[in-house]
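Hypothesis: this fold can be encoded by more than one sequence.
Test: take the structure tokens below, design a sequence, compare later.
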């Protein structure tokens, strides 16, 4: 099956939890803090791989999750990092996020993009030792890994794309000049999937793409052509095949008009792409009929069945592609690098103040908030991170409920006598 567009969900690994632990010795029941930190979760990458022909594996398995980090242990033993996950995709794959933003265009073998970051591992209590806090009794939980939906869309990488009506002879031509074996028969839409063929022309090699047949209205979704027009976008040149046989209702001149209009409607740049016009199946029509075609442009004539005109057509295509290669810089892939967003937002929801964002969740991400030391530490974080000030600025009042990371507590703004949250009261989330 040729699958060239899929939606997938990826989730990075969760970070392992830190541990609160103390050195135990005879006669010293609670000694120096020695709790290790959890390992970070594994990241998820997409990587272009020239051995992957389609996106079929993601059609069958649309959900992927990287391994999580392991938890820390006592005696300063830190958790293991979760392995990174690399998901191979075909060359020519574009990656879009849930907002429709293209975050990567992978066209070179080995090109990769980070699509989901693993969660940070929680710190053990040994990491919180300070001059004032010599024996912290708390540790951090690991962060959840990022989770996101992505749309993967594959566009064939070819030197030239064969464009034409159904049964115009595209599949027969590519089968004649390459090792590709497309399905061929005498009824419309026999080619339901694009085919690639490598053609040797003298000392040169060309990659030809056989694009499924187009009909009038294809750019607007009529027939099957709309789904495959995107595969012409990366081709250096277009080869437009016109069929003079009785199988087509439209004349070759009319076919040319329709095909150019469909290319223009899909992408105006395509209509200006260097192209070769060729009339196929010349073995099926009288030579006098060929002279009367009146296309208004020069056209190659050939028969994929008998081989007539094939060599001249291939050299013409190779010359046009060669000119484009010399005059046009190589198409580079790209990756949109987006920094991790540490900002937080505050808004009213379900009768309470909801604070969202990575930095906000990190502020309360401790193992046991009923521990007085942990509650004091979190209160300090809420002040130093600016969350307390932000709550006051949006109108939060003493006694209001505030929710951060699924934890609900009572807001007690700082004062001249209270530079931290006076009370920190985790309550059960009633959402």
């Amino acid at each position: 099956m040729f699958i060239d567009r899929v939606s997938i969900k990826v989730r990075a690994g969760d970070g392992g939890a830190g541990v609160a632990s103390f050195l135990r010795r005879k006669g010293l029941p609670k000694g120096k803090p020695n709790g290790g930190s959890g390992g970070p979760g594994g990241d998820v990458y997409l990587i272009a791989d020239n051995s992957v022909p389609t996106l079929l594996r993601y059609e069958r398995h649309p959900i992927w999750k990287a391994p999580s980090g392991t938890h820390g242990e006592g005696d300063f033993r830190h958790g293991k990092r979760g392995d990174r996950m690399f998901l191979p995709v075909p060359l020519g794959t574009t990656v879009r996020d849930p907002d429709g933003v293209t975050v990567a265009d992978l066209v070179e073998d080995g090109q990769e993009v980070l699509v989901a970051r693993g969660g940070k591992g929680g710190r053990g209590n040994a990491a919180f030792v300070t001059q004032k806090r010599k024996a912290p009794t708390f540790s951090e939980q690991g962060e959840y890994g990022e989770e996101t939906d992505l749309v993967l869309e594959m566009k064939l990488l070819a030197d030239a794309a064969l464009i034409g009506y159904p049964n115009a002879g595209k599949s027969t031509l590519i089968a004649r000049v390459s090792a590709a074996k497309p399905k061929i028969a005498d009824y419309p839409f026999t080619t339901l999937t694009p085919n690639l063929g490598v053609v040797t022309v003298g000392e040169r090699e060309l990659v030809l793409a056989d694009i499924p047949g187009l009909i009038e209205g294809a750019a607007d979704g009529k027939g099957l052509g709309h789904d495959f027009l995107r595969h012409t976008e990366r081709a250096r040149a277009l080869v437009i095949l016109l069929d003079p046989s009785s199988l087509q209702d439209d004349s070759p001149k009319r076919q040319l008009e329709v095909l150019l209009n469909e290319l223009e409607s899909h992408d105006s740049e395509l209509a200006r792409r260097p192209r070769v016009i060729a009339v196929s199946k010349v073995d099926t029509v009288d030579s006098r009929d060929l002279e009367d075609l009146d296309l208004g442009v020069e056209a190659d004539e050939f028969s994929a069945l008998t081989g007539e005109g094939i060599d001249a057509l291939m050299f013409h295509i190779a010359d046009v592609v060669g000119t484009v290669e010399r005059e046009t810089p190589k198409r580079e892939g790209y990756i949109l690098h987006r920094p991790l967003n540490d900002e937080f937002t505050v808004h009213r929801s379900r009768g309470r103040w909801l604070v969202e964002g990575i930095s906000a969740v990190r502020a309360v991400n401790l193992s046991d908030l009923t521990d007085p030391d942990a509650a004091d530490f979190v209160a300090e974080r809420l002040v130093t991170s600016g969350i307390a000030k932000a709550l006051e600025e949006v109108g939060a009042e003493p006694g209001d409920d505030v929710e951060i990371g699924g934890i609900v507590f009572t807001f007690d703004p700082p004062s001249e006598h209270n530079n931290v949250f006076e009370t920190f009261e985790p309550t059960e989330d009633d959402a």
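The chain has three domains: 1-154, 160-327, 345-410. The mean pLDDT is 83.
Hypothesis status: open.
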